[in-house]
Amino acid sequence: MQAALMYGAGDVRIETVAQPVIQEPTDAIVRITAACICGSDLWPYGSKPATAEGARMGHEFVGIVEELGTAVTGLSVGDFVIAPFVTSCGVCDFCREGLQTSCRVGGRWGGTHDGGQGQFARVPHASGTLVRVPAGFDETLIPSLLSLSDVMSTGYHAAKKAGIRPGQAVTVIGDGAVGLSAVIAAKLMGASRIILMGRHKSRTDLGREFGATDVVAERGAEGAAKVRELTDGDGTPVVLEAVGLKDALVTAAAVVRDGGVISRVGAPQFADVPLGFPEFLRNITLTGGVAPARAYIEELLPLVLDGTINPGRVFDRTTDLAGVPDGYQAMAGRQALKVLVKPQP
Amino acid sequence: MQAALMYGAGDVRIETVAQPVIQEPTDAIVRITAACICGSDLWPYGSKPATAEGARMGHEFVGIVEELGTAVTGLSVGDFVIAPFVTSCGVCDFCREGLQTSCRVGGRWGGTHDGGQGQFARVPHASGTLVRVPAGFDETLIPSLLSLSDVMSTGYHAAKKAGIRPGQAVTVIGDGAVGLSAVIAAKLMGASRIILMGRHKSRTDLGREFGATDVVAERGAEGAAKVRELTDGDGTPVVLEAVGLKDALVTAAAVVRDGGVISRVGAPQFADVPLGFPEFLRNITLTGGVAPARAYIEELLPLVLDGTINPGRVFDRTTDLAGVPDGYQAMAGRQALKVLVKPQP
User: What residues of chain A, 99 to 118, have a C-beta less than 8 Å from chain B?
Assistant: First the structure.
């Protein structure tokens, strides 16, 4: 089969790799019908040292169950399934608590394991990992179902960890696919005002359609001043940070109201969080983290199926596997917001 | 009247200062009957540059209302009152939300204002700031009532912001007066296990009496390993940090369970919090901050009056005003845990 491998910064290749087979009785083999390139894939795409062995890529996909190990329950061959961006057993204490990203036996896609950017994947702990979509759904919903793998669930995690209450004002920092998904999530949780900080007009326009009431295109101190101006000088009690750079957290601290919450879902590209004595005096909480998408897919799935939310609109480009290297380039160059990959011929 | 002033590191003097008078109709004058030296006073005591003008000190006191401005309501001359460690109006949005430390007009004690380490104090926004204690209480409770000014309320803030649920395991870092108060608070909120990290046996012994079930005397990586050993390798879902040094937060991150909460009430002596990518992957929340003591005094007062909690036991030395400079030295040298000051002759 064909799959994408990254050999170093800017170097993604499509190659023939081994067809996956069942290795453990808890495995499933899934034929991938749609996958993505992720904003987080752009970090290694920008900085990964060159390697002789390529790393398999992609951690978001949907597809059809091809084969099941003997111990898999709750799934049948032919099921349409959503794969969250980490695998999880479904039975350990962390999985039962809804923190499947800390599953005691789960793991990540890609690297030496199969990734989403390929034609098939072996799915470990298939009963715990995969979520079955009831048959008969409208296939135009596939982009939105696919977004539950990561970006929509990640935006929702930001909102949930922040504990948004109906009527609250929320600032969302970042107009990437996760930031826009966070707008959807904030609206879903009843935010009365959603200030979206982002400077790409086509993206912030989509953000407005998703529920943003205000857009601030300025960045840094200027952007923060604008948000404070919009909020009588106070900032908002909730800030959802969907970038992952230290500057974004500095902005978050500058626009959060005293006693408020910064919920971060941008993978931090830095070791220390700039929350010192001033933020201590202002009782600022920092929450968030990597999203246990598996915990949210069952909750969000009915909202996708009935059309309440349409997060699949974040995909603005579709490609086959051969187009994946160009897709990385387009996302890195901000010509594409999020690329949907159709790996089957 | 007499009061304590700090002129620089290690330089505290008792001097004659102006007797306070009513300046605003919302002021009260309080005759201070008991006050404290605070662990946070030790930061300037260790590092303040020498100055020609001394700064008034002390931000925790109880006393008797001597005089009231014409606009003060809810208080009478002769009332016994507790003063929280910041002043607050009681009517602005932050005060109504219970975040009186962010009051729009409130302020701090000391500096060029009166402090607690003196015989009298002018109390701005007296109606909002002071809490009246019903007459007829047992005077042996005064140390515990005094602790509500700061340390007990601060320990309680740590526990409340962490949202401790009955049955949870909690680690408390620091065996100072705030750490020990945090133990009381954790027990009050139903923690089933309270691991106290501290290396001063007399303090951790008191911590055990307050409810600590385990004591870890080791520090740093060794101490963290011990806590993890006590908790099947996982750490505890709640960590209350009552030190304020960066190392304590590193320890907090090392002993908090995935998905858990670090609630900090140690005033941070550093700008950046060491919560980077590993803690992001583990979904660690950082909360806490300076405690709005005013929000908790009314809640904790009945528990002091009926003997449910006895936080006044943190005081292990009593002095008159003349003994305050020695009191600073004793606390800095860890010969005293917390010093109670009786400023009236």
Answer: 99, 101-102
CATH class of the domain defined by B2-150+292-342? alpha beta
Question: Could you tell me the pTM of the whole model?
Answer: 0.96
Provide the 10 A C-beta neighbour count for residue B68: 21
Residues of chain A in contact with residue B290, where contact means CB-CB under 8 angstroms, are 280-281, 283
Cα–Cα nearest to B37, from B242, B332, B344, B294: B332
Q: Do A281 and B101 touch (CB under 8 A)?
A: yes
Q: Which tens digits make up the pLDDT trace of B23-47? A: 999 999 999 999 999 999 999 999 9
With 0-12 / 13-18 / 19 or more C-beta atoms within 10 angstroms meaning exposed / middle / buried, residue B193 is middle
Question: Smallest Cα–Cα separation from B246: which of B289, B275, B215, B287?
Answer: B275
Cβ–Cβ contact B271 with A under 8 A: yes
Amino acid found at B309: I
User: Architecture of domain B153-288 in CATH?
Assistant: 3-Layer(aba) Sandwich (3.40)
Helix spans in B256-342 (H)? 277-281, 293-305, 324-332
* Two structure tokens written together for B63: 């006393």
Q: Tell me the C-alpha distance between A243 and B53, whole Å.
A: 47
pLDDT, residue A271, reads 87
Angle at A271 between CA A262 and CA A99, to 5 degrees: 55
* ipTM of this complex prediction, to 2 decimal places: 0.96
Q: What is the 3-state secondary structure (H, E, C) of B230-259?
A: HCCCCCEEEEEECCCCHHHHHHHHHHEEEE
pLDDT digits over A259-269, tens only?
A: 999 999 988 98
Put simply, whether B44 touches A (Cβ < 8 Å) is no
Are B277 and A288 within 8 A, CB to CB? no
> What pLDDT, in 10s, does the model give residues B310-342?
999 999 999 999 999 999 999 999 999 999 999
Spell out the alpha helix ranges (H) of chain A.
42-47, 93-96, 126-129, 142-147, 151-162, 177-188, 201-210, 220-230, 246-255, 277-281, 293-305, 324-332
Count of positions (residues) in chain A: 345
B289 touches chain A (CB under 8 A): yes
- Residue ranges of domains in chain A: 2-150+292-342, 153-288
Kindly tell me the sign of the dihedral angle through the C-alpha atoms of B214, B217, B219, B221.
negative
What are φ and ψ of residue B6, in 5° steps? Answer: -105, 125
A163-189 burial, b for 16+ CB within 10 Å, e for fewer?
A: ebeeebbbbbbbbbbbbbbbbbbbbbb
Rounded Cα distance between B34 and A131, Å, is: 63
φ, ψ of residue B253 to 5 degrees: the values are -65, -30
Q: Tell me which amino acid residue B79 is.
A: D
What average pLDDT score do residues A172-182 get? 97
Chain A contacts of B279, Cβ < 8 Å?
A: 289
What angle do the packed helices A293-305 and A151-162 form, to 10 degrees?
Answer: 110
For A11-34, what is each residue's pLDDT tens digit?
999 999 999 999 999 999 999 999
Name which of A144, A170, A164 is nearest A300 in CA terms: A144
**Spatial separation of the C-alpha atoms in residues A304 and A144, rounded to whole Å:** 7
A308: contact with B, CB 8 A cutoff: no
Q: Which residue type occupies B218?
A: E
Stretch B97-126: mean pLDDT, rounded? 97
Looking at residue B67, its pLDDT comes to 98
